[in-house]
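User: quick one
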Amino acid sequence: MNLKIGVIKGDGIGPEIVTEAMKVLDKVAGVYGHTCDYTQLLMGGASIDVHGVPLTDETIAEAKACDAVLMGSIGGDAKTSPWYKLEPSKRPEAGLLKIRKALNLFANLRPAVLYEELKGACPLKEEITEGGFDMMIMRELTGGLYFGERKTEEIDGVMTAKDSLTYNEEEIRRIAKRGFDIAMKRRKKVTSVDKANVLDSSRLWRKVVEEVAKDYPEVAVENMLVDNCAMQLVKDPKQFDVILTENMFGDILSDEASMVTGSIGMLASASLNETKFGLYEPSGGSAPDIAGKGIANPIATILSAAMMLRFSFDLDKEADAIEAAVAKVLKDGYRTIDIMSEGKTQIGTEEMGNLISENI
Amino acid sequence: MNLKIGVIKGDGIGPEIVTEAMKVLDKVAGVYGHTCDYTQLLMGGASIDVHGVPLTDETIAEAKACDAVLMGSIGGDAKTSPWYKLEPSKRPEAGLLKIRKALNLFANLRPAVLYEELKGACPLKEEITEGGFDMMIMRELTGGLYFGERKTEEIDGVMTAKDSLTYNEEEIRRIAKRGFDIAMKRRKKVTSVDKANVLDSSRLWRKVVEEVAKDYPEVAVENMLVDNCAMQLVKDPKQFDVILTENMFGDILSDEASMVTGSIGMLASASLNETKFGLYEPSGGSAPDIAGKGIANPIATILSAAMMLRFSFDLDKEADAIEAAVAKVLKDGYRTIDIMSEGKTQIGTEEMGNLISENI
Ligand SMILES: CC(C)[C@H](C(=O)O)[C@@H](O)C(=O)O
Ligand SMILES: CC(C)[C@H](C(=O)O)[C@@H](O)C(=O)O
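Assistant: Done. Structure below.
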């Protein structure tokens, strides 16, 4: 099989970590008789430097011509990057919002997993995480406050800013279905998170999710208010299987959940549309402070590549091989600095990529 | 001094915990030569039962005639209470939103403190909380998504729900000033939380906060994105002094922070307007599952009464006396069930109130 993959190396540590993921993809392709055909795409700060904008229409067209896109990270240091002197619509993250909308990537999957081997890095006490946890945050990615009309204007001499949060039942239904489909392949539990005691959009969300739930009688479903969910993630993360939520709540809760694992450098993510196409990227940011030092953890990106094989190419065996290789290298005691602990062997970005490759 | 205090006992554990707080208030008043003049006010489920609505205009008028209001908790069990069969605008929480707006309670202060004595209940590992933490969440309470226009309608045959998030510079300025004023009495650090890389309202928020900051040269101020803040609360809560944020973000982050302390039954809150008037209530909910059992922790409500003495009546000595009595009782090893640990003495709601009273 020929895999046509768009590659956005991105900003900060992006180029380093993507290079290792490509190395691993090439290895797995070699072993299983596939070929990877990469198209380099510019986005974020790297695109601003060349084109003056974070994402050009040509890049979007090129991305659409690929089967999937692998991405490093977008953005820089808001305090020091010259990009952050630009108006908001020209900043690196604007490219991220634009590509999500342009490619209709409405379903954002963010696993938050406590790795047994890395329990030491988890900020929670052992009695809470005993036995580990493994949840999937399913975040709606193309609606809500992120894409509503907004306006800042003077009203009676007072500056006033307005954002709007809109969802229609079709947008809710398609993400809910994805959430339940994923739950069927997991532990068959969906926690739908909203703020239905306040928001109209949340009341519609809850209604539609309850309708969709009827088509999945095997799945246990519960509604949880977003403020309560923010508490429960800290109090008892083991209770969750799939968390299904809208865009802004998903942004906040997925980041909280990833920090609760203690190993954000390990967490992959996928953003999918109605087809097999997907954008795959690590959950963490561009970490400009350590860029170019060869110490960033490439595992999240490598696991994102595994998600890509699984979701966009249906290559489950190949994805399993990558995940097994990652597990093996961790078991053998190799760690990048972010997940380092006593008695383990500290290695750099490239060495980590090499070791995972060798284990495939 | 005669303290004219409105009392909303509320739902669930509300009546039990408020009774203990009144007992403590009466004791402190007696010792320091004041009198408490209480006016009982109905709100929430208790008001629905009597008047069919969660808050009547008469109750609002009576509340306004008081110097301050002490409240238990509002709401019931969404799964079983008959109140939750009512349409949203008639449910208990609607009273909460209505009273906030009617009394213009724009500044919601929620302390999140790790009590040295109760470290065992904290979900975070000891190495993270070493030395304790003590932050104050300052949440804007009368604007944003909570009070924007909302509408659910069929558009081209598709049900569509819309909420809106509006802030003007005056609303932002007054809460920011309160935040900085509080910081001046604390460790002089303000973390202003927004989502300025996406929302217009957040960009205006950031601009106004930066303007207000100029009047407080002694206060260190930083901007933090809400998703990052949700992570930092788990990773390193010690970094925070005052967190200043808008209504919805404040709802989520204050609940997360309270759970991070592990002792939500200890956390007070105050909601203030431009005058000395305030509404004081525990941070936790109505806990219908343990209502009437005499086991609820009254300390959060008792500490809310102390906040009332401090903020609405400028009775600092009296507030100190309550706080010292709480600390003493904890030090003596008395615990309600929610904060119980090995080797301590478990007592009920009333006993806890009595002991705190006796220590004043
Ligand atoms: C950079 C930002 C616009 C983005 C978001 O809020 O979606 C990021 O936080 C994320 O979660 O991918
Ligand atoms: C009950 C609900 C409307 C309320 C809110 O969201 O403000 C509560 O969660 C709180 O934080 O006081």
